[in-house]
Specification:
This protein is of the alpha/beta class. The protein is built from nine helices and seven strands, in the order αβααβαβαβαβαββαα.
């Protein structure tokens, strides 16, 4: 190929520029983190805004995607009435009905206070079965249990008993457990604004507060999932 003087100079300049410029490695975007929340009326946003309950608030704070499967009045043992819809089944039955889903990073199972009317000698097996089913349905996902909040205040001996049993079941299955009661998420002061005294459920502001608390707990437990990529 024949080059003119102008063409030769242009080639030299171009080659010089190429040799001087640092090589750039293409940045591969990180897959958005995904969370599934399974729970009761607190996770469902009953009496507040179901689209902005604690699971959605936590996910928005972390920049994650979230799917919420929550049914008011349900628990590890407890279903509702004649169970006319899937979200009225107990946690065990709901998780058992879910299809296998890969690529989920975290599954949070919230609640347990609705089980206080059930035979508590059956609670441990129901919790452990739920957690095993979660592991099977969401292979590779981190599993976290979020214990019930004060329902109502002051916390009763039955509430503390449920919380201790849930914590023990989680430990037996090597699952992270976060206790709202032990960590004092809802103190007397917070309770006034976060919980509606008529319904004993979180208000819109209360759901936001709980969601931010959940996001903080997830950051503490799973820093590798919540640290922004550089």
């Amino acid at each position: 190929m024949r080059l003119t003087r102008r063409g030769a100079l242009a080639t030299v300049v171009t080659m010089a520029g190429l040799s001087a410029a640092p090589a750039r490695v293409p940045r591969v975007p990180r897959r958005p983190r995904t969370m599934v929340v399974i729970g009761d009326s607190w996770a469902a946003g009953l009496y507040a805004d179901p689209a902005h309950a604690l699971g959605q608030v936590a996910a928005a704070r972390l920049g994650w995607h979230v799917t919420v499967d929550a049914g008011s009045g349900t628990g590890y043992l407890t279903g509702v009435g004649d169970q006319i819809s899937s979200d009225e089944l107990s946690y065990v039955d709901r998780v058992a009905d879910l299809p296998t889903r890969k690529g989920v990073d975290v599954v949070v199972v919230q609640g347990g206070s609705n089980d206080r009317t059930q035979p508590l000698d059956q609670l441990d097996e129901a919790v452990r079965q739920t957690l095993r089913l979660v592991r099977h349905r969401f292979p590779g996902a981190r599993r976290m249990m979020l214990g019930p909040g004060p329902d109502p205040l002051p916390v009763t001996a039955d509430q503390w008993s449920i919380d201790r049993q849930l914590a023990g079941s989680a430990a037996a299955e090597h699952v992270d457990y976060v206790s709202m009661l032990r960590e004092g998420w809802i103190s007397e002061t917070v309770h006034t604004s976060a919980i509606d005294p008529r319904t004993e459920h979180p208000t819109v502001a209360g759901q936001r507060y709980l969601g931010l608390q959940l996001a903080s707990a997830l950051r503490r437990l799973y820093p590798d999932l919540t640290t922004p990529a550089h």
